[in-house]
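To close the chapter, one final illustration. This time we ask the reader to focus less on the individual chains and more on the assembly as a whole: which components sit near each other, and how the overall shape emerges from the parts.
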Amino acid sequence: MDVASAKLIGAGLAAIGVGAAAAGVGYVFGSFLNSAIRNPAASDGQQGRLYIGFAAAELLGLMAFAVAMLILFAF
Amino acid sequence: MAASGKIDPMHQFVIEPIFGSFGHNNPFVFTNSALWTLIVLGTIWLFMFGGMKRELIPGRWQVAVEGLISFVDDMVNVSIGPEGKKFLPWVFTAFVFLLFANLIGNMPFGIVAPAHPFTITAQFTFTGVMSLITFAIVLGVGFYKHGLHFLSLFVPKDAPLFFKFIIAPIELISFLVRPFSLGLRPFIAMFAGHVLLDVFGNFVVQALNSHSGGGILITILSMAFIMFVSMIELLVAAIQAYVFAILTSLYIGEAVNLH
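The assembled structure is written out below.
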């Protein structure tokens, strides 16, 4: 296999991580909604924590994207 | 370009000189990055000074500016505590700069060809330096207030001794990664969105040029996707600025309060 096609396959594999992060972000917002509907009065105070959890989950997906871009353009 | 059939989504991030050139060992070059930084700065000045007239009965503009300030003020007070007022200037600067830079980078000025917006926050130099400033504040405040006792940030308080030895290195690594991840987050979010928009924008042009029935379908689908991504990008622009500000105040709060 030549390097150019191996690069494309590698970038495609790295992009799988973005999908995994999508599941993580969905889980963060899903569980927030689950508990916010049970106790709407307390939900406003937890929005900061919601976005921290969102940021932590999202970062890993962005890392996967960064790796894919590095493989495609930096090598 | 689209005519050659090869999509080059990285071209929009190239820093090009507007006045002067990079040659002849010339370090003072006015680039498109500098131009758009000035535009962002000018917009922030217009917005802030337009609402700082201190009228007794505030108009809409003043309410908007005051709302923005009290929004960041609340966030800082919740995460840092009573000493938060001291750190409000930096958190507010970072929040407003990221918000305006992200939003201006998303503006569709590209309809007029030379006015294509250059997204300054899609460069790691900008966001990376901002996160370095945040961590200079964290380390400076931490060591100034607590001395070497600041290092107890890495040791959980009420854990058994055995676990302290395991958790301290993990906490240290987590702390060392933070400056990197804090700057990477806004950068990648803007970068990824703009690559996506560029790729699908090229799909529209190429499909229209193919003059076939399937081409029209692809054009409509791509155009709908571009509109969807543009809306998501506006949301992401605000969320990333908010996340940067709240994480900054959280990290500073950790250094000020130590657990």
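Chain B has one domain: 2-257. The helical segments of chain B are 32-50, 60-80, 88-105, 124-146, 161-209, 213-257. With these observations in hand, you are ready for the problems at the end of the chapter.
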